Amino acid sequence: xxADLLAAVDPVRxxxxxxxxxxxxxEDVLPAWVADMDFGVPPAVTAExxxxxxxxxxxxxxxxxxxxVVAAFERRMHDRYQWAPRPGRARTFSDLIQVLQVVxxxxxxxxxxxxxxxxxxxxxxxxxTRSRRRLVPLPMVLAGGRWTFEAAGLADRLRSAGVRLLVLxxxxxxxxxxxxxxxxxxxxxxxxxxxxxxLSDEIxxxxxxxxxxxxxxxxxxxDVAARTxxxxxxxxxxxxxxxxxxxxxxxxxxxxxALERAPLDYFGTPTxxxxxxxxxxxxxxxxxxxxxxxxxxxxxxTVADWAGSAxxxxxxxxxxxxxxxxxxxxxxxxxxxxxxxxxxxxxxxxDGPPFAQHTAVDAATFARLNFATSPELVQRALDGIDRAxxxxxxxx
Length: 396
Ligand SMILES: Cc1ncc(COP(=O)(O)O)c(C=O)c1O
Known about the structure:
By secondary structure, the protein is α/β, with parallel strands linked by helices. The chain contains 15 helices and 13 strands.
């Protein structure tokens, strides 16, 4: 079956599909940046979308018995993560960035502090800053060979910074950490002490590797669930970012009531194509997902071996298909590693600094590699990075 996944990794098809990842780069550049995968989509998703188009089912959505995405989300959280979402508290959105915006607007006021692990998904930093809230970074640090955050004195730091909202990205992008229950409990205690709202973005949960357990933040207890908005979608693990469909479970009574009062046009709405794709992904695509994780595990090992021999500091992700690479100890570390890899290796990585934008955290020596492609293209990407390093070595 993984043959089907790999057959979809066809550069001609990928460029024709006009997605940002492939279509926006020069012909001779291998794209390994934005978090889309090259594997196509599960057959059940294709079948649902074909059926919807065949039926010309493109009118305004109508779901008198409840949103099918909400029902699928509740079943999935229960069956896969042993967490029972509170009935009536989940609602669909078009995407997670909109969930962030809605939560920032309702849970904080201009000038309030918003704590977030940094580096992080760049649009969260940009959007929070645009909303005139103050970013309060929780720097990710390497300790004992894994990325984590400084827990000592955290409550005092966040209190003195006037934090009202904690944005937790777990599993974490770009480091790939799946925070363990002990780390999450530290955050939960701080949130309780300071009476914070927590937005827990768990979009990468289904991409946890074998032996790693994803713990939904809201599953830590009823009191934690009551201050948490859990946001997720099928878009990362099933490669359907273009269908624009996400779900958020609003644990806080106050926030729930505020959102209930807000007019529908305030939120925007997902499409029924997005709903159909999401339900097919979550409920009828286990085989595809199993194959996916096999391919990703092998690629993850390839990247880790390469990083070890190339002198690139890298901790293999516990979840996600993203490798956060530190070029500090290499000839590329001195300036703009992603730029040099683009120019001299003809590979497009995600540049490190935007993952720390608007904060004092330094990500200048980092770049992020997306390894959700065939083993051959992963190798080509690594060869391109090697070429850029060799060129920098010659030039120094
Ligand atoms: C942590 C995280 N949250 C959210 C998103 C994007 O979500 P959406 O496209 O639904 O806004 C991404 C995309 O890569 C992500 O990594």
